[in-house]
Amino acid sequence: MDLKQFSIAIDQISEEKGIPREQIIETIEMAIAAAYKKDYGQKGQNIKVEFNPETGDIKVFQVFLVVDESMLRKEEEKKEAQKKEEKKEKEEGEKKIRFNPLKHMMIEEAKKIDKNVKPGDEIKIELEPHIDFGRIAAQTAKQVIIQRIREAEREVVYEEYKNKEGEIVSGVVQRIEKGTVFIDIGKTNGILFPDEQIPGEHYRIGQRLRVYILKVEREPKGTNVYLSRAHPKVVSKLFAIEVPEIAAGTVEVKAIAREAGSRTKIAVSSNEEGVDPVGSLVGQKGTRVQTVINELNGEKIDIIEWDEDPAKFIANALSPAKVLDVELDEKKHEALAIVPEDQLSLAIGQQGQNVRLAAKLVGWKIDVKSEEALKKEKTTSKKAKEEKTEKKQAADKEDKKEEDDKKKEQDKKEKKEQ
Predict the structure, then answer these.
(1) What does pLDDT average to over the chain?
(2) Predicted local distance difference test score (pLDDT) of residue 38
(3) Are 41 and 53 in contact (CB under 8 A)?
(4) Distance, CA of 406 to CA of 386 (rounded, Å)
(5) In a 10 Å sphere around its CB, with 0-12 CB exposed, 13-18 middle and 19+ buried, how is residue 345 labelled?
(6) Burial of 236 by CB count in 10 Å (0-12 exposed, 13-18 middle, 19+ buried)?
């Protein structure tokens, strides 16, 4: 065997598949053990192989579990175990063993080999190594290597993308099936379902996209990586790539509200004096925000300055409309935003989108009214109160008059009777 070429092959597999070299050597050892057992071993034997890729030396061992009498089933227990004992034993802390001379060794025999051995330990006995395997044994070894490398590769893919959950990655559209888009993101294909796509966005094979890793799941056939373009965090993560101040922690994204494909409102604050959070996201001549808008195919983005005061934050959130005043109802968690008459439609937005996104961003129920409408309401309310008061007073007068009339009638009757 050409050890140099063999070592190069191991390194190549390790690099291509992202599998540690030690794990590949362990796989080879398992494959040789399976082939050895097929041609030279017996059913039930526990064979282990130690392989040195530098020298090409192979050592073969039969592994025995050291047991004592307390660990073994008695003859009566063996018969019972065939019926019901198996279920009970699973519930017990220590499972008793059915002695097999190919797998187990009594403590007395084990002490002859190693004086320090204890029950439960493993003892290895070296066997004569063989490297000339038959066709079936060689096929068995090949299958073991293929299966183990596939399993290791799946584990590597799962671990890599599990650590990237909640991150943005770049990918290329591979295929489209019934609206579901499969995107090559490196070591695997991610799945972009229709409900995670931006409404109205069209995809083509070979198109490069930035996608958000929503969830990673381990499945029997491999790893499923679920992607999103519609998630609100897509916008904040894209800004994190474009704005160094976010990565440095100088500027912080506090809240985000999004209607994918249409509009997004993002609230930011500064953790350092003298740094403008809104200006940091906009960039010089709007270059930073424009890059994000282009990535999202023209989606409108409102960058809002976050404020601890809910009234100020609500006023900012209704941007681009100018807000005159905000009245808060802390108990009901409701707010009334008062705007000039010419700003009312802008504050509400098309189909109520602006006020809807603002409410989502700040977490308050927001009602928007124009200053003129509010004055009319107050005037109308005042008139209504006055009218109500007048009516009440008139009714009270009428009631009093009736009472007085009744009293006079009563007095007249009393005088006549006398």
Answers:
(1) 82
(2) 76
(3) no
(4) 30
(5) middle
(6) buried
